[in-house]
Task: structure prediction
Amino acid sequence: MTVHFHPFSDFLIVVGMKAMGKTELTKSFCKALRRLIFIDPKWQLGELGYVVHFPERIAPAFQKFGKVIYQQKTPEALRYKTQRERDQILYREVFSTCLQFSNYTLGIDEIDRFARGKWYICPEFSEIINRGRIQGIGLIGNSRMPHMFHGDIRSSADHIICFKLHEERERKYMAEWIGKDHNEIKNLPRHHSFYYNVDKSTVTPQEPLY
Result:
């Protein structure tokens, strides 16, 4: 079955534990896109486009190349702050820049880092999640820890692809979300997944899509 992802409006979430296919599937979707800004906090996806390391370089690179990968370099002055503090300070400028553009897809690796249920979510990122599709911004996000998602992520997603999850709390969260038994999620073979189409309320087992 093919996932019909509309790159300027839809919101796709990919979850799964390490080495089950989550990152490779994300790459597959993003490689097919013509206009992309991808936030890559773990420096894993630089092959997808032109890499920049500072927020002020995103806009000119996107206007020139159309596909930009942002890999953060932390300024010396912020080196000893916590990860949460760094993300709040540094990525707020990134998301503000992303709001300047339309008709593209925003990709985010480890999306739970930027929108956690009990943590701060910056206003600019909240605007993208809740209203981005109105100005032509699609969203692709992946995560190993879906139970940490901010409620806005769950309420706004159009497509969910769930690979194998080992942690019980993650499995139960996804089981409740997509309507599958958590043991079925635990026993998924490598690179196999469940695809949940929110609009149709259907769950389909999937063999590798790439």
In short: The domain at 11-206 is CATH 3.40.50.300 (Rossmann fold). The longest helix spans residues 83-98.
